[in-house]
Amino acid sequence: MARRPIIAGNWKMNNNKIEAKELIDGILYGISSLDAEKMPEVIIAPTYTALWQAYDLIKNEPKIALSAQNVNPNPSGAYTGEVSLDMLADFKVKFVIIGHSERRQMFGETDEFINQKALAILNKGLIPIICCGETLEQREQGVTDAHLRTQITKAFEGISASDAKKSVIAYEPIWAIGTGKSCDAAEANRTIGEIRKVIKELYNEEVSDNIRILYGGSVKPSTIVEQMAQPEIDGGLIGGASLKADSFVDLIKGAM
Length: 256
Ligand code: PGA
Known about the structure:
By secondary structure, the chain is an alpha/beta fold. The protein has a single domain (6-30, 40-75, 85-254), classed as Alpha-Beta Barrel (TIM Barrel). It has twelve helices and eight strands. It has an eight-stranded parallel β-barrel, surrounded by six helices. Helix 1 runs parallel beside helix 2 (48-58) and helix 7 (144-155) crosses helix 9. The longest helix has 18 residues, at 185-202. The chain is globular. The model has no long low-confidence stretch (mean pLDDT 97). It binds 2-phosphoglycolic acid (PGA). Residues 10, 172, 177-178, 216-219, 237-241 line the site of 2-phosphoglycolic acid. 2-phosphoglycolic acid is lined by residues 10, 172, 177-178, 216-219, 237-241.
């Protein structure tokens, strides 16, 4: 089963206008000599304030796609501080990250709200990158797989098989995010295999064979090759190492 790998950079709350331009220019330069046919699908997720500029800089570059870091599922209205899917579509945003543990933990986002976002994103023809992951405590208690099953089952409620097949999941153990301590590649592979089994139970083998499941959590150029060699891991969702053009380009090369 050939699933096209993904390398996605989640900038989080980083990069002002000048920094965003420098980073994108550096990435464009770094990938200019790479063979598009062999490249993973490359995604960058800037902040909302950098989206316009990012769109403008990459609009003629088919090697990079844009993602948003969040969205509000409502079409418009009195939601101070929020951004709608219509607004993202203006900038040809193709993906939206949802369910990131930082949004769950710091901003109180529930499985139900994440499901509403997933449905709205797919309805609009965009693709959700649905994050899931366990805390260190859950891992130590041996409830990782059960926890992920719940998160995935709730996130996919009401989503059709054809929409599920297009969606992307990112398995991000919370204890590995931003800590420099990546999950052991074989264990990440096992866990992602368990997530794929849940998808198969919810839908069928065609969906579970096609859906792309990424690993996230302290992915670095020094870890990516081993991670990509795992049969269940279809790419990376990368925070820290996506903020420097050199390391992001090395991650792209590591996935080729
Ligand atoms: P990290 O972040 O690569 O800095 O660990 C990953 C993420 O939170 O998506």
